[in-house]
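[#protein-structures] MJ: dropping MATE family efflux transporter here for a structure pass
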Amino acid sequence: MVQDMTVGSPTKRILNFTAPIFIGNIFQQFYSMADTIIVGKFVGNAALAAVGACGTLMFLILGFLQGMTAGFTVVTAQHYGAGNQKAMRRSVASAAVLSAVVSVVLTAVSMAMMEQILHWMNTPEDMYGQAYGYIMVICAGIVAQVLYNLLASILRAIGDSKRPLYFLILAAFLNVVLDLLFIAGFHMGAEGAAYATVISQGVSGGLCLFYIYKKVPALHLHREDWRLDGDLVKWQVAIGFPMAFQYSITAIGTIVLQACLNTLGSVAAAGFAAASKIEQVVSQAYVALGTTMATYCAQNTGAGEKERLRKGFRSATWIGIIYAVLSGLLIILAGKYLTVLFVSENLNEITGYVDTYLKCVGISFIPLVFVNVYRNGIQGIGFGLLPMTAGVAELIGRSVMALIAAWFGSYVGMCFAAPLAWVLAGGLLFVMYLYIMKKRI
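AK: finished. structure tokens for MATE family efflux transporter:
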């Protein structure tokens, strides 16, 4: 069912729209978490560290695509909010063509450069082979990732956040079954986990496409919708690529952090990887809230509802802060006990690394609320380039802290790299919001 975000209580609309996205993001995390748990249990710590190291590269590649497709469909949401069905369909067709072209190019470039990238990241020899096999399969399956992310973004743009959730839940269960089959059954190692992820993501994308074909006539494209319009393409590129680069800038900082972390050895890297998976599950609420704000702000911008934009930002901020306090306490007090899910050797030592990381990030979630709510909200209004400066601040904060920590051999310093990045980016984005609301709209 689609939702019109331009009417009703902003708080209720935001909560109702965010909840399915949050649950969907959790299940999407199960893709990589299932990989991590099953690889750690059946293959070993070196393979676990390899999957963790590849997580940063996946974030770079797939984050770029997720940001790009979300940016392309901001235009779709604005046309939907304005009630212009024809322009909405044309934006969908244009987004599909642009996404297909970028998918082909990115697949070729990433696979050609991956060997060198892993060397740049100081990937230890005992995990290099597993890391290379895993990430190459992920790169080869980029088109499956784009299919789901684009179609899910289109459905969310017209106010439907539930159907992508349902399809993702089915695919998540399929991913677990395939992980067990490929890793425990066929002994394919980390590479088997990558095949399971790509196949499952492709299934969820196929289900989205089937649902749109059967149940959403408003998104049935006509022949004339496929004629590319130069102004429309420029508009989508002006929003989509900055959003994509925003994700990539964040990922580059994470890659720098991973390269510095690798100098501490595979045990520390395994502990960091396990802790990151736990933190990423909790932090999906912030990602979901940001996704909601992109749609909310895009629809209300299209409808010319400036005051409703202000109310939405206030509601989303308080929702995020309350969740930040509760989730932070949860992982600080109990997060370390989940370590047993990921490792089968050196449990006590790795649990110590996990506990340290979770305490560092658990006290720092409030700035992460501002990063997601205000970045995505500003992008939903239609500002693509401006939030990228916050991404640069985030890159600098994370990278500088990681390099200093590596110099002193400090694992604690590594754990505080992300919180410092959140503080810098979140503060800058809030200042941008105040400027935009006062001067630009």
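MJ: nice. Residues 10-440 form one domain.
AK: one more thing. The CA atoms of residues 99 and 251 lie 20 Å apart.
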